[in-house]
Amino acid sequence: MDTLHQSPTDPAFVQNPYPFYDRARARGPFFHWAEYSLTCTPNAAAVNAILRDRRFGREAPPECAPVIPDHLRPFYAVEAHSMLELEPPRHTRLRSLVLRAFTSRRIAALEPEIRQLSHDLIDAIPAGAFDLLTHFGQKLPVIIIARLLGVPESMSDDLLRWSNSMVGMYMAGRTRQTEDRAVTAATEFVAFLRGYVEARRNDPRDDLITHLIAAEQDGDRLTTDELITTCILLLNAGHEATVHTIGNGVKTLLETRTQAALSPDRIEATVEEMLRFDPALHLFTRWAYEEIDVMGHRFQRGDQVGLLLAAANRDPGVWDDPARFHPQVALPILFDRLPGLHLTEAPEYADVYHFHGLKRLRVARD
User: Fold this and answer.
1) CA R_g for the chain
2) Which residues, 6 or more positions from 222, have their beta carbon under 8 angstroms from its beta carbon?
3) Dihedral sign (CA 209, 214, 219, 223)
4) Which architecture does CATH list for 68-262+331-366?
5) Domain 1-64+267-329: which topology?
6) pLDDT on residue 356
7) Which positions ≥6 away from 25 have C-beta within 8 Å?
8) pLDDT digits (tens, 9 = 90+) for 272-314
9) Which helix (H) or strand (E) holds 61?
10) What mean pLDDT is predicted for residues 233-241?
């Protein structure tokens, strides 16, 4: 297995990580990423195999669990109840209870609200050049999530600030200042939600927090801490990924001049292609729970592996012409309302690896 060097904060890599992924893939299914001290795979077959194999999982084996320093305990006290970090049976229990509140009916009911909010945000866009992320991409998901939870929309700026600070913990180049901001955000977010949950226990409403409180299976309910973490997860994971996906997707459509082909009847196919071509999340990790061979590489219990999702999405062993964007349709309201939308400056990606999203997206309409 070859060792490769690539700083995840190197400006050239931040703007375009795909050449490094191609170079890594050419070395075989696995390589050692020196800067992370981590075995990684850019190979689609290996990524797929590991994600599907129950001998790999999200949680570290008990004897390999990282030691949490005292100053980070408030942050990881929240993460301890996150479904993204848990394996069965805890993950199964949490997921089952949350799905009793987060029903398909509730999700479908959001569509007219999202449609109307999209129009409202477009109506408020200033004349001349503007940042699409500031005026549309960031506001749309945080307002919808606030409405879903049932918290006041006036809290949107606080929710956005807390989310940005907390997800900073997963970005390359993390510092003590980053950690302190994340701990402060987690503490403030938990305090707000704890008070809000108690208010909803005494005054139920038709919102997700109330339904999470009421969710029950065989006499089991979410604890207050589990409920709070679920709400934080909804904001942090849902908002961050949506903002980057909107930004990366619109950038790609404008650069490839394919927005004119949009029609509302094939949205799902283009969302899939946007997520393949330039996704918001590039790296997931998994732990090995026993000795296991994957494509000639032998993992021992406690080994960690990095799954380079964006690299796997451009594996020529799976896709013909993988570096080419094959559009269908996306964001029809935006492009229908702003048919002359065009870039006014070259988009620049933010230094947020292992996420992948733009600093801003300066555009104008004809």
Assistant:
1) 21
2) 94, 97, 98, 212, 213, 215, 230
3) positive
4) Orthogonal Bundle (1.10)
5) 3.30.43
6) 95
7) 42, 43, 311, 315
8) 888 999 999 999 999 999 999 999 999 999 999 999 999 999 9
9) none
10) 90
